[in-house]
Amino acid sequence: MTGVHTIPAGQDLEVLMNAIRLGDIKAVREHLVIYKHHLNAIDIFDYSPIVLASLCGHYDILELLLSLGAKCDRDTFQGERAVYSALNDRIRNLLLKYDYSVSVNNKQPYATLLSSLLSKEVGCASLVGIVRPRPDGDMRLRPQGGGSELAAHTFVLIARSKYFRRLLESPGALHMDRLPIPVDTGTISAVLRRIYLIDSGDTAEQRDGLDISDLAAYFGLRFSSGLATDSELGKSGASKLTAAVETAQQDFLRLWDGYLSTPLRLARDETFSISRLSSRVKSLRPDVVLRVDSQLDGDGVYFYGAHRAMIQSDFICTAIRFKQEFQSSDPCGGMPVLVSIDVSPEIMEIILKWFYTDIVEIPPDMALELLQAADMLLIERLKSRACLLITTQDTDKLLTGELGYSVFDVARAGWLTGTFTKLDPFCAKFIANRLEWCLDDNVTRAQFEELIHESASRIQRREETDTIELIDDIRYYLNERFRMRFEALPAHMFSDELQDADQALQAPQEHTVEVLKTDGGEYVRLTTALDELLAKLGFDI
Amino acid sequence: MASKPGSGRIKIRAPRRGLANENMRFEDAWALLSEALQQIYERDASNLSFEELYRTAYKMVLKKHGDPLYNSVNDLVRTRLQRVTTTQLKPARPKFTLTSSAIERRESGNRFLAAVKQSWEDHQLCLGMITDILMYLDRVFCNDNKKPSIQVVGMVLFRDNVLRNRDYDIGADLNRVILEQIRMERDGDVIDRARIRSCIYMLEGLYETLDDREDQKLYLTRFEAEFLTASNEFYTDEARKLLEVCDAATYIERTNDRLIEEWERTQSTISTLTEPKIRAIVEKHLITDNIREVMQLETSGLNFMLDNDRYDQLRVLYHLVHRVDNSVNEIRRMLKDRVVHLGREINKGIYGFRKAPAPGEGQNGEAEDKSVNAETAMALRWVEDVLALKDKVDKIWEHSFSSDQGIQQTISKSFAEFINDNKRSPEYISLFVDENIKKGLKGKTEAEVDTVLDKAIVLFRYIQDKDVFERYYKKHLSKRLILGRSISNDVERAMIGKFKVEVGFSFTSKMEGMFKDMNVSQDLTTEYKKHLANLHLDTGPTIDLDIKVLTSTFWPWSSMSGETTHTCIYPPELEKIRASFQQFYLRRHNGRQLTWQPQMGTADIRATFKTRKYEINVATYAMVILLQFNDPNVESLSYNEIKTLTSIPESELVRHLQSLAVAPRSRVLLKSPMSRDVKPTDKFSFNGAFMSKQLKFKIGTVKGAGNKVETEKERKETEEKVDESRAHLIEAAIVRTMKARKSLKHGDLMLQITEQLSKRFMPDPSMIKKRVESLIEREYLERETADPNTYVYLA
Questions:
Q1: Does residue B423 share a domain with residue B477?
Q2: For a pLDDT cut of 70, what percent of chain B falls above it?
Q3: ipTM beyond 0.85?
Q4: Across all residues in chain A, what is the average pLDDT?
Q5: Are residues B324 and B403 in the same domain?
Q6: Which member of A261, A295, A339 has the closest CB to residue B15?
Q7: Which pLDDT value is given to residue A505?
Q8: Hey, what's the torsion of the CAs at A38, A44, A50, A51, to 10 degrees?
Q9: Domain of B756: which CATH number?
Q10: Which of B132, B133, B145 to mutate to test the interface with A (most CBs of A within 10 A)?
Q11: Which pLDDT value is given to residue B74?
């Protein structure tokens, strides 16, 4: 997370830091009882308490800080600094033990994306008024009693706050000028930080008017009123963040389901205009409209409103920039940019949903198409997710073609999309485990031969090895498949082999040698058949 | 119109697109793309469909057309750049004809720079758009095949087809134009810096190699060297010209301006990478090579600046020299020479003065007196002159030399050098302190007093023979104490405190002893008075006795009393009280010896003349003489009679008779014949008709009361004394060292001794040798038989 909270360098923090320097654990504990928000504060030297404790080598204090929930994930500057400046290995290991980015890191990129929005995308021009969405999709929050106004993304506020959802749906709302409640800039910005998943730990500060939890409640935020209340102080920072991210995901899922997943459908001959988008989508102030052409007969063209802030596709981002920089007559961008995407509406929706929620829930039969789309649109992280979906299945459907694609298509897709490091081992293992099928079934055998050819041609192009990678991998997994049986009896432990396993199970102990012979025979038969196949295809073995 | 996904809407899925199913001919796709790229180059990109172009390139990569696509794009860019070179840059090439005027040259240069800048910016813009469209090619094809990206190749193409075009050497032209423009600016013209800067940015953005190594920037490989060569030539010439026409002040100013100018150039016109290099060139030619000559310029160089307190010039000079030499040795060397020279000028005044009255010296007491008085004034002026010089140099040091530590050392060394040149400086400085403590401090605040004394301490620090100074200071201090001439004890003590800080306890212990004596004496006097009161003696007119008992080792005895022993026959009234005190003192301190020093004392007497009574303060001896005339029977006394009656040592007697009978204002005795000299045959009588304006006055002793410079004779004595005490110190040091080391080579011993003693004085090697010989004679040491160069300590 990038939003590091800098407490105005106060005397109080200095007291805590000095206690840490001196190794006075009692003073540290007492201080943190009163000033909980100092737990992750940063002093004028950019030290946070854990960095300092780590640097000075006070194991007990460090343990206390971590147990109270001090952040130490390596994705952050402070966390990384603490780990690197650790006085000794004992301290370092303690930090790594608490490092949640190792255990729960799959949530981290999404949280980082959200956090980065507040600092990067918001706050360009100044504007009077509270909740008046600007053309660029920012919303301005203005404290009642004056003070500097704050900007936030309209769609984020709508996703996360019941208050803003209602406000935008009621027509009179836009005339309001200030927040109707007494609250100051500091509190608003603290609540905004929490909306954007920036855990700044600033909870205990009492100000005039409403405090943070009051304002959060007023806004109808779905997270608990205090991230670091007394009961939760003991909770580890990791699980707190995970919970916060999950809540945010749910909020954005609702935004997706309720607003964005509804495209505008037009017939091919109709002309698109922004005004034709549904009012719910328009209320979110989309700055991008993605146009998808359905190729089903009678189906038309679909238009999805979206927000550039959430788009993680390098292609779409570049297209927007290209159009704004080189082609638009209105470079500041009052109007949403229209980008055509050459995928099916289903895939578009999967991708958009993933942009907003980080959730991919699709049947396996769409996984390969998703992988290709992600590759075309240059979305690296989604490619990994798609590969994961593909490689976690182990079903014969990959050979029967019931999924709409075969294991051979998977291998090819891996080569095309640059994901072969993930997909190749899967394919090789899959084929090795079903080599009988591939060699014996004529249709499958033809496809297999074609794949071997393609793999071989890849080698010529890359000139790195003089063997066929695919075959090497298959031989390896074939070996693995049978070696396991030789070494580790009883074989029923390895239930993925149907026939052989049954045999082993039924055979009495004294027949073990016989089983081995049978398995050995099968192994020899398969390798010989493979060699023959290669010889027939004209390769040296 | 809207439909929900995932609600079973899509049962029949669209056929997959993009991959194997679609067929695509490279020629068709490339036709589309190349058409678009041409449009981009024609600045007609607004109608292009980014998505379609991207997709086309994407499909070409998937269909394994990546290689031809990559090459075709590069060919297209290359052709384009060649055309640009021929059609836009070639016509703008400047003509470097010698006949053209400066303005023409500048204008044609500007046109060329503008054309280069324009072509570079166009190229960057178009390349950016091409890179966007071919993003998939870059990301996937180039990455997989380890080929340089379109962006990198685009830069290489620009380099090779524009700057290094086979037919027109645009790169060389560019260098030449830029250098020419910089030359113009150096000569005072105004040029378009921003335009040059954009061309420089271009050179910085292009590399010799594909991997963008920082040291392979074209700017560094192609331009910078030429620039530095040209600059080298320019500044060689510049230095010569400046030396020819400028005085030092102008030279320094110009150099400073040039340095600033070149720095600005690296910030605004060329790359900051060149900053250290061009700076080195200017520094070398304008400072390192020539500054010495500039500083030595007679009418305007460093000496002139020092003499005339040109703080600003000196400051600039210092900063210039400091650039090339952190320890500014050149300045230090010359500064030292100048300070020593000025110091010696001050010294010369003294010598000149001392030689002048030579004829009368030694024969005529009065003449000697006068010359001593004058020399005392001279001594004080010497100290003041030295201090004034120090002030002047310090101010320059502070204002112009950034309080440089090294220069401070140089200043100290210079002062030490000429101050120690003057053998009398310890005496002079002590006199200066004496003078200030006695007179000068009246009406000054404590802080001012402190400043003056601190100045004295600064000079004291420079003195090498601290023991000589100690001797003089003690002498002067003792007179001040005994005669009560000190204005304030606090000031005296502060001064001693300062000495203690400078050289340590051993230096001041005796002076502190003197102070202790004074205090003890005060108590003693009071007690004695009480003692007298207790005795209820009633013996005629009481004499108020103020006694000072001095510990003989603390006080500089010989210099106070001279060789002669001071005794006299006290008149009975005095003798009684003297005996009484002696008895009193010895009873209190059994076993001590009291020696009376009448020559140090003074007395207040009341004398009745014809007209009125006067209270006169006179020396003890003078009182004794006057008391001889108290007897009403005495009409007159001859010199010899007085001598017999008082047995005052002759020299003292002469002096006191002179002050009583010769000095016009205090002639309480009459002398016949009336002459300045006192001869044994002279007769003296009481001058009843004496009159004075004041009721209370003081008869000073001719020569003696105040601290003056020493006469030659005294000086010789002092020197002997100093040598004597040095001999002791050296012997002590030798014995101490040898006792610890048992055996030591001659050289080592000399070194050790010199080091140990140098804080107090610089021991003379021949003196050490003499002491060693003497110690060998007395069998403290012996020479080792095998090696006569080694001494052995004999227990």
A1: yes
A2: 90
A3: no
A4: 73
A5: yes
A6: A295
A7: 46
A8: 170
A9: 1.10.10.10
A10: B132
A11: 93
